[in-house]
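DUF1883 domain-containing protein: structure, please.
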Amino acid sequence: MSYTYYNMGHLQRGQVVEVTLSGNAANVRLMDSSNYNNYKNGRNHRYYGGLAKRSPVNLTVPSSGNWHVTVDLNGLRGSVRSSVRVLPSPLPTIQDRPLSSVPSLIHRQGVYDENSVDDVRDFDVFISHASEDKDEVVRDLALALQNEGLQVWYDEFELRIGDSLRRKIDKGLARSKFGIVVLSPYFISKGWTNYELDGIITKAVTGEQVILPIWHNITKKEVIDYSPSLADKLARSTATHTVEEIATEISTLIKGQ
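Here you go.
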């Protein structure tokens, strides 16, 4: 039996072997060592692949181990040339930094009210946002947080032109364990400087991040254009996370404290 043989060596489960053919259809087989030995000795064998009428052929490795590829014309006429390669594996999925990696996001007792011996927070979370974002995302986020069993304060944090951003944020931090800013084109259009917003999200003295930005309908480039340092802060985005996923992550962090 005439065939073209390729020893692929050790391959990991999920890797893809690409077989390129030219000149004719051919039988393409991907086999482990045991089945390849059976194949070359004319015995029954198992394989991945089959009759390839188009090129290239992509075969996914089903388990880690040593693998072999054969190309033959058994039952076919003509001639064929072939080549094989292992396709580059994708990079590992990017993992978001967990919220727990920034412990200063949780505001414990006594942090913001130095005159109070028993500084008990009235709320778990406050959401600072532009009023224009309430219908599209903020109300759903607040409901998702409430469904997680958290006390949420957000109606008084509809920020409008002329409002004092720092006064609003300070009030929220004083009464809540966790602060959120929904950062959107509407929010940025309120006229606050990037210096002011960045200074509120990060403590000026220690540099600790105290508020979680949630990007909504805004790109990283837009955030960088507005405030390069703000773009580097730990954040979540409604483009990559649902409000339910964000709420669950925040709830897990707060309840874990």
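Notes: The chain has two domains: 3-86, 99-256.
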